[in-house]
């Protein structure tokens, strides 16, 4: 259950990061409120998952999901560059997440 909650926390990190972009420096109320609610929920779920997962594993997976998710949203929704080096960097982050999960199982 902790892994499911951690993944959900990471997905909420993507939500609040994207909403923060849409908030235009917190000058737009709707996206600003989504940012704050997503941030609070993401932190709460991360905290809950840390009850049974090691700090290093939980935090790395949480930030990794957020980083790769924000990268994907940036490319698919915001039209950001999908250069080979950026794609390689995202792939390396994903590889690190897989290794972190596998290391926890050992």
Automatic annotation (TrEMBL):
Can you tell me which family this protein belongs to? Belongs to the drug/metabolite transporter (DMT) superfamily. Small multidrug resistance (SMR) (TC 2.A.7.1) family. Gdx/SugE subfamily.
Q: Which residues cross the membrane?
A: 33-50, 57-79, 85-102
Which species expresses this protein natively? Sphingomonas kaistensis
Q: Which protein are we looking at?
A: Guanidinium exporter
Q: Which GO terms describe its molecular function?
A: transmembrane transporter activity
Q: Which Pfam families match?
A: Multi_Drug_Res (PF00893)
Biological processes per GO annotation: xenobiotic detoxification by transmembrane export across the plasma membrane
A single GO CC term for this protein reads: plasma membrane
């Amino acid at each position: 259950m902790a892994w499911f909650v951690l993944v959900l926390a990471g997905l909420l990190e993507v939500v609040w990061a994207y909403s923060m972009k849409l908030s235009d420096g917190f000058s737009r109320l709707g996206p600003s409120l989504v940012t704050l609610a997503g941030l609070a929920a993401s932190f709460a779920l991360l905290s809950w998952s840390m009850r049974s997962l090691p700090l290093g594993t939980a935090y790395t997976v949480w930030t990794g999901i957020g980083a790769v998710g924000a990268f994907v949203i940036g490319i698919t929704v915001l039209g950001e560059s999908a250069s080979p080096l950026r794609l390689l960097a995202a792939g390396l982050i994903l590889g690190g997440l897989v290794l972190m999960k596998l290391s926890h199982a050992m």
